[in-house]
């Protein structure tokens, strides 16, 4: 079922910002959207046997859920995140600031914006690097971040890169097309990040080669996107930032309307929204 096209008008007045409240947006990410990739985190940690001997660096760690899961396995974790609101939420989750935060929180190190921010010569080098959310590097900075991460990691450290699986295996791909279609007037300046498009066969491998990494295995994981209701689905997807260019090109109300229409085929009788997806990950070596 194809969403109904809505005629766009170019407004001369000021358009609404991508999100009226950046704190609310970060909370929507932390409370609604971030958990959608839990199966991916679990599959990677199980395959790489993450435990108390792991010293993990999470690039684009969001609000820290993946790192929290690694810490629960005993790993010492460190994260970088460019979004200051998400970074603050990650610090609340991971960095102990009270005696009752528990031993798990004590396994978190400094959180910052880049690998150089969190490198600590007094600690052992990292032996696991993850980049689960390529959208955190929409400005094309992921390759340089991976190069920095390699500098502070042991030789032959596994680096995990992740992205969407084939479009035909990802129900959400039809919804994301709303973002690219509405953003068309500004796509030349703000293209959809490649890591959040359905991956081509060798996209992750090409990214690894650009960063000077050696591919060493891959896998696919089912990551369904499930929401309690339509409002949660819209808020969760908007929190990703993938619709920001569309909001700038039109306005927030139109994006919400067309996003709701695109989600309608995925709404079940009980009001929940469910979209099966497959994500792919690549393991490369420093």
UniProtKB/TrEMBL annotation:
Residues 1-21 are annotated as: Disordered. Residues 1-16 have a biased composition (Basic residues). Keywords: Methyltransferase, Transferase. One of its GO terms (molecular function) is methyltransferase activity. GO terms for biological process: methylation. InterPro entries: SAM-dependent_MTases_sf. This is SAM-dependent methyltransferase. The lineage of its organism: Bacteria, Bacillati, Actinomycetota, Actinomycetes, Kitasatosporales.
């Amino acid at each position: 079922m194809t969403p109904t096209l809505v005629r766009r008008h170019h407004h001369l007045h000021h358009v609404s910002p991508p999100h009226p409240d950046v704190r609310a947006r970060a909370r929507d990410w932390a409370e609604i959207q971030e958990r959608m990739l839990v199966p991916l985190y679990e599959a990677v940690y199980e395959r790489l046997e993450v435990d108390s001997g792991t010293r993990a660096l999470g690039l684009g760690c969001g609000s820290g859920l993946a790192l929290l899961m690694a810490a629960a396995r005993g790993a010492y974790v460190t994260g970088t995140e460019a979004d200051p609101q998400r970074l603050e939420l990650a610090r609340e989750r991971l960095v102990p600031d009270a005696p009752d935060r528990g031993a798990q929180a004590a396994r978190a190190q400094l959180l910052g914006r880049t690998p150089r921010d969190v490198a600590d010569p007094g600690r052992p080098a990292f032996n696991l690097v993850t980049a689960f959310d390529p959208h955190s590097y929409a400005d094309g900075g992921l390759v340089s971040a991976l190069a920095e991460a390699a500098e502070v990691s042991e030789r032959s450290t596994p680096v995990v890169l992740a992205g969407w699986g084939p479009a035909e295996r990802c129900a959400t791909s039809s919804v994301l097309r709303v973002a690219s279609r509405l953003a068309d007037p500004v796509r030349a300046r703000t293209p959809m990040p490649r890591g959040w498009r359905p991956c081509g066969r060798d996209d992750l491998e090409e990214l690894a080669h650009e960063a000077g990494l050696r591919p060493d295995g891959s896998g696919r994981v089912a990551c369904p996107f499930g929401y309690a209701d339509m409002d949660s689905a819209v808020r969760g997807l908007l929190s990703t930032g993938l619709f920001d260019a569309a909001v700038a090109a039109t306005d927030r109300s139109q994006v919400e309307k067309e996003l709701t229409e695109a989600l309608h085929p995925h709404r079940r009788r009980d009001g929940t929204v469910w979209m099966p997806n497959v994500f792919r990950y690549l393991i490369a070596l420093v």
